[in-house]
Amino acid sequence: MSAVTVKNVRKAYGDHVVLDDVSLEFSEGEFVSLLGPSGCGKTTLLRVIAGLQSFDSGSVEFDGVDMTNVPAQKRGIGMVFQQYSLFPNMTVRKNIAFPLEAARMQRADIERRVDEMVELIGLEKHQHKRPKQLSGGQQQRVALARALAPRPRILLLDEPLSALDAQVRSRLRDQIRDIQKEVGITTIFVTHDQTEAFAMSDRIVLMGSSGILQVAEPAEIYARPSHREGANFIGRRNDIKVVASEGRLRWEGLFDLPSPVPDGEKVRCSFRAESVNVTLAGGARRSNSVVNEWAEARWVPARVRTRTYLGSTSSLKLQLAGEEKLKAVVTGSLAVHIEDDSAVDVSVDAKDINVYSKGRLVAVGSEQVMETYEGATAA
Ligand SMILES: Nc1ncnc2c1ncn2[C@@H]1O[C@H](COP(=O)(O)OP(=O)(O)OP(=O)(O)O)[C@@H](O)[C@H]1O
Predict the structure, then answer these.
(1) Where does the ABC transporter domain start and stop, copy by copy (predicted)?
(2) What is the CATH number of the domain that holds 352?
(3) Across the 379 residues of the chain, what is the mean pLDDT of every consecutive 10-residue run?
(4) Whose alpha carbon is nearest atom 16 of ligand 1?
(5) Residue 291 belongs to some domain of the structure
(6) Cβ(8)–Cβ(57) below 8 Å
(7) Which domain holds residue 113?
(8) Is the predicted ipTM greater than 0.85, yes or no?
(9) pTM score, two decimals?
(10) Cβ–ligand 1 contact at 71 (below 6 Å)
(11) C-alpha angle with apex 230: 224 to 236, nearest 5 degrees?
């Protein structure tokens, strides 16, 4: 049985439909991210699950029990928001104890539970401090401990990392995931940051302007975004318009794939910037008699228009012989040695090319995709 079931939920603000017949299931102990751009309805969905948001139709169940008419405070959920929302005049311990006192737990039990929580978040040394004496990351750990202290059955996190700077953010991201695994609590996490979603989740619910696009494990979302909108949201991609001709999709000598659509129809061939293989012109790849993973690829000449050095990688804008542009990312020594105006050779593996027709994934390389999100047949 699912820990949380959302069934056919619809929510509109006036005539703006934000959740349109949304159905989802969350398993016990699972960490699921609701990922998508601003305004796609992530927070609304989380608030519906929490019982903080009324909705027009559908239902929400926890462990098979209908929660639709159960108020938020009786649902057994813990929540952490973007804003720290700690009580500024209370110590760390007092903040964590607060929901336990409100629930009229015995004093000795409260002390024991607070000890346990302080240890869980690793703030033993800071437990007698007030929030303003703590860093942002530490405050969020206290907020997490306060949410977990009453042992809720579900943890809901609404962009808890957004207010933090990059370094603290990635550390806390890992800490939250560790704590969640240790406690084993079903967790739903709202974010618009794909790195966070990929790093933390067992599954991702990818949302877009028209609702849920895809529900899948991170690796599947990464490799095979079911919709063009999702593909463009989750990474820097080349998104190339190609018209099918003679049963093929051909572009600039770089790829030549069997077409999944009739001649004359337009598709988008989409591949990640990091899927573009790049070598300095005349480099190793010329020895193609050597069988290597690129042996099947078609190499074409290009020139570096701009190179943005990012340390471990360089992001490139390339121009092909026919003036067409291409985005690429290179790593290692190439990232250092490549320069503006360098002559390079480029290729893309067919298996890295996703073909979208009318916004939906219809083929990966030469392989047609028959089914997309939840069984809907691709157009
Ligand atoms: N109380 C409200 N009244 C009217 N419209 C609202 C209300 N709350 C949210 N909306 C609208 O509903 C849509 C979804 O909002 P929601 O906050 O769920 O999106 P989100 O994906 O969480 O975005 P963000 O990441 O910016 O918080 C937005 O267009 C928003 O403007």
Answers:
(1) 4-234
(2) 2.40.50.140
(3) 94 93 96 94 95 95 94 92 87 96 93 93 93 91 93 93 84 90 94 93 94 94 93 92 96 94 96 93 52 62 93 92 92 88 92 95 88 43
(4) 41
(5) no
(6) yes
(7) 2-223
(8) yes
(9) 0.88
(10) no
(11) 85
